[in-house]
Amino acid sequence: MTSLPTFFQEPVCSYSLGEQPVPAHDPADLERLERLLPETAHHLGTRDTQEYALAYAERYQGDVMHLEHEWEFLAAAQLRAWQQEKYEVVIRLTTALAYPAGRRANLAEAEQVLQVGIEACRCLSDTQHLASFLNRQGGLMIARGHYYQGQQLWSTGVQLAESTGSLPVLWEPLASFVYSADILGSYGAARQFIELLHDAQRNADPESLTAALFIRGFFARISQNPDQAYEDLSACLQLLLAGTRSTCLSPLQQLFSIVVQAELARVQGHYTRAQAYTETALSLAHVYGDHYTLGILLIDQVIFTYHQDQFADTRVAFLHLRELAQRVETPYFLERSHFFEGHLIENARTQPVQPKLLAVLQTPTGLHEPLSTRETEVLQLVAEGLPNREIAKQLVITPSTVKKHLEHIYAKLDTHNRTSAIVRARALNMLA
């Protein structure tokens, strides 16, 4: 591994949030938390919001649903702690917020929360938490389409973790096994990475190794190496189950366990069993996982079922992926969705055994009605990067009229924002 950049070796406490005000807490927040944490209310004997935020974060550590429900309250407490230079409190709250970060509709907001935690780690020279937050931040940047920056942060996090003698960043939060697989990108890279983990096992926890074994097993399967895939996936499952003999699986661990078993069933050629596990994994990912994990599982499902000639299952996975791509700000999902759409329609036209698939793909994806000349002009200027005010100036209309045109464009293209509308229009060759 290369040496760490100096920027990550020395504490730097110059990060500024500008003039961003500290949000005021609603008294109702404390009343709600007192009901959720009655034992804590008695123990604290105070109505200090920061103390309640810490108690809540630690009580529901790893519980994605509870943490997501109180995101605004916890994020406000984190910001207040940062401005009060209580860096240890910032780190504790960021550790909790890292779990639901990937479920936010606005990933830039989630990145901001993680960035505050990263700066607090630098101030206290806390390498272990810094590695974990950088790992998570890198994953979120990749989800937003900032691939190079995301990979750089992820790699730096791994280097920092290696310097401490363990790599728990692969497991906490567990969804990072998906980002890790995407960043490594090949069987060769996965093999090298697992050697790194074996070398780090002197002090590392076995849970990190389970994630790495899964990654190598996954790449072995798609590289047509079923024996190696079966060996890695079986070892991964054994390690995972061995670590839970004295405790119950968390929801995220359950998700991971089911994904591993789905991969094993695929390797063994048990399609029905693989489908059952996959459907369960997708349900859990929808409830507990982040958007990126759900999307990657859907992409894998589209590819796997298509190669197995199970086109009805391909259709279901594809439609779910397309809906997700229109709902969240992840360019990769939009790209994959439109790629699959074009490929499946073209293949369906040339394969007489797939007329039903062609009908399903064409019906929901065709335009409900064509764009008007003015709507086309607006869409073209949007694609060129112009804001509404500039578009209005060029077309000599009001910004509110531009906004109304965009609403009609979104409805006709079956999209929900500017990015997805541009991608959809390009896929249909509607832009110059």
Short description:
The protein has helices at 27-36, 38-44, 49-59, 64-69, 71-83, 87-97, 107-124, 127-143, 147-163, 176-184, 187-199, 206-222, 226-242, 251-268, 271-288, 291-307, 311-327, 331-350, 355-365, 373-383, 388-395, 399-413, 418-427.
Describe the fold and architecture.
The protein has 432 residues and is mainly alpha-helical. It has 23 helices and no strands. The two termini are 46 Å apart. It has helices at 27-36, 38-44, 49-59, 64-69, 71-83, 87-97, 107-124, 127-143, 147-163, 176-184, 187-199, 206-222, 226-242, 251-268, 271-288, 291-307, 311-327, 331-350, 355-365, 373-383, 388-395, 399-413, 418-427. The protein is 72% helix and 0% strand. 44% of the residues are buried. It is globular and about 60 Å long. Helix 12 runs antiparallel to helix 13 and helix 16 runs parallel beside helix 18 (331-350).
The profile of the biggest β sheet is:
none
The CA-CA distance between the termini, in Å, is 46 Å
Backbone CA Rg:
24 Å
Strand content: under 5%
Number of helices: 23
What's the total count of β strands? 0
- For the residues shown, what is the average pLDDT? 78
Computed structural class: mainly alpha
Helix content: over 70%
Q: How would you sum up the global shape?
A: globular
Low-pLDDT runs of 5+ residues are 1-11, 41-45, 356-366
Instruction: Summarize the helix and strand pattern as letters.
Output: HHHHHHHHHHHHHHHHHHHHHHH
Q: What topology emerges from the helices and strands here?
A:
Elements: H1 27-36, H2 38-44, H3 49-59, H4 64-69, H5 71-83, H6 87-97, H7 107-124, H8 127-143, H9 147-163, H10 176-184, H11 187-199, H12 206-222, H13 226-242, H14 251-268, H15 271-288, H16 291-307, H17 311-327, H18 331-350, H19 355-365, H20 373-383, H21 388-395, H22 399-413, H23 418-427
